[in-house]
Amino acid sequence: RATTRQQLASGPDSEQAVKLEEKKSRLRQTVGLLRNLNVVLGIFVLLWAAVLQNIFGLLILR
């Protein structure tokens, strides 16, 4: 895991190793984006729940 790009380049499977490193960084980026999306969607769900609660509360109190 702690291998540098130089060590990877000196190995026999250097091309495959570099490709895997790129794939890994892309996956990490995707996971980060999905986490951010998850947080935003959670906030929207909470806000929507509060709005619906207010609407029904006002309807009942009429």
Would you kindly provide a written description of the structure presented here, covering whatever features stand out?
With 62 residues, the chain is an all-alpha fold. The protein has one domain (5-61). The protein has helices at residues 5-10, 14-61. The chain is rod-shaped. The termini are far apart.
Mass-distribution shape: rod-shaped
H and E string: HH
Give the helix/strand class: mainly alpha
The domain count comes to: 1
Q: Supply the number of helical segments.
A: 2
Question: What's the pLDDT, averaged over the residues?
Answer: 88
Q: What is the distance, rounded to the nearest whole angstrom, between the alpha carbons of the first and last residues?
A: 64 Å
User: Mind telling me the C-alpha Rg?
Assistant: 24 Å
**What is the percentage of strand-forming residues?**
under 5%
* Annotation, overall tally of beta strands: 0
Please estimate the helix content: over 70%
Largest sheet: none
Unreliable residue runs: none
List keywords for this structure.
single chain, 62 residues, mainly alpha, 2 helices
Summarize this structure briefly.
By secondary structure, this protein is an all-alpha fold.
Show the helix and strand layout.
Layout (H helix, E strand, L loop, with lengths): L4 H6 L3 H48 L1
